[in-house]
Write a structure and sequence with these properties.
By secondary structure, this protein is an alpha/beta fold. About 30% of the residues lie in helices and about 20% in strands. Keywords: Hydrolase, Signal.
Length: about 350
């Protein structure tokens, strides 16, 4: 991928920040710490992992092994209406097929001669009842497209124009992982001249960070690199307690009626955690988290990084002192690091 001038990046940051007015965050501060990746002798292969996959007959379909055992599909990427034209890219509504469902989304295609590297963006939790296509990562979509990436922001099932999946919530929203895998496969098989099928990465925020974790363990070799911002816990039982149980969400009772509580059925809850299968990960991961995040505690990321490191995985962890969940004052710094990371690994 061609190197980009500092002036172009700075201009893109200004435009993206203007587009993101309304986001809030904590006071600025210096990095509190950072974990660098272990040395790697070679880039991750796009071939499937050699780790044995569970057999379809033995795996609980509502589990990481169930997703590993499933044959995933993603195809039929279709451009719809033009949503916006800028000096740097054109934004389209899109649909694609993922494991038999039609999923909607938004795609920004840079101006100029491709093929361009591509990124699939996985947004955080937004109530599907109020969600609209492309909502959730608007400033990232803009900045990344201005810097030469095709950006596909998936809406997920049950969102915007996507097909419905009535069981998705009670099944811990594992369907979102299928939607992201399908998005990458649809990009790769599209045949569009603007898209380089050999250079694809993932970026997820908050809940979308958890979707990225799942994707890395379910489909090693699918992408070249991944970045997460302020991710949820990699232990779903912890997310259930933190976000749903304490707020009286009635879906908790349905989840535990179907799957059991963590105390009653610890095996199930271990099998829905990506950390149980972290040894399958083959791609480098960059993780950003603010020390003042009161939505997703930074301790969650510290524990996740420790497990990745213990498994010998390539992980970079950047802490932002005083920064909150939405990344306001340090967002430009975090995106400069993100683009430098993708520049190294998507080539």
């Amino acid at each position: 991928m061609r190197m980009l001038g500092a002036a172009r990046i700075a201009a893109g940051l200004v435009l993206a920040l203007v587009a993101a007015v309304g986001c809030t965050g904590s006071d600025d501060g210096d990095d509190a710490g950072r974990t660098n990746p272990p040395a790697s002798s070679s880039a991750a292969s796009k071939a499937p992992s050699a780790t044995p996959s569970p057999s379809p007959s033995s795996a609980n379909p509502v589990s990481i092994p169930g997703l590993i055992a499933r044959k995933h599909s993603g195809s039929d990427l279709r451009l719809g209406a033009v949503r916006a034209r800028t000096d740097a890219y054109t934004s389209y509504t899109v649909t694609y097929e993922a494991n038999g469902l039609t999923i909607s989304g938004l795609m920004n295609i840079p101006r100029g001669k491709g093929p361009f590297p591509a990124l699939v963006l996985a947004h955080g939790y937004i109530d599907p009842a109020v969600y609209t296509t492309g909502r959730g990562l608007a400033r990232e979509q803009d900045l990344l497209a201005r810097n030469g990436y095709v950006v596909l922001h998936t809406d997920y099932r049950n969102h915007a124009g996507s097909d419905k999946d009535a069981d998705n919530d009670v099944n811990l929203r594992l369907g979102y992982t299928e939607d992201v895998i399908g998005a990458v496969m649809a990009l790769r098989s599209s045949g569009r001249a603007e898209i380089d099928p050999e250079r694809i990465g993932l970026l997820g925020r908050s809940m979308g960070g958890g979707v990225v974790y799942n994707t890395l363990v379910v489909a090693p070799g699918l992408v070249d690199a991944a970045v997460v911002f302020a991710p949820v816990s990699s232990r779903p039982a912890e997310n259930l307690d933190h976000f749903q149980r304490r707020n009286g969400d009635p879906i908790v009772a349905e989840i535990e009626a179907k799957h059991g509580t963590p105390k009653e059925n610890p095996e199930f809850w271990e099998q829905v955690s990506p950390l149980t299968y972290v040894d399958r990960v083959t791609e480098p991961l960059l993780l950003h988290h603010g020390t003042a995040d009161d939505t997703c505690p930074i301790a969650w990321s510290e524990r996740t990084v420790a497990d990745f490191e213990a498994a010998g995985k390539s992980v970079e962890f950047v802490k932002y002192a005083g920064e909150g969940h939405t990344f306001a004052p340090r967002w430009p710094d975090s995106m400069n690091r993100t683009m430098a990371f993708f520049e190294r690994h998507l080539r």
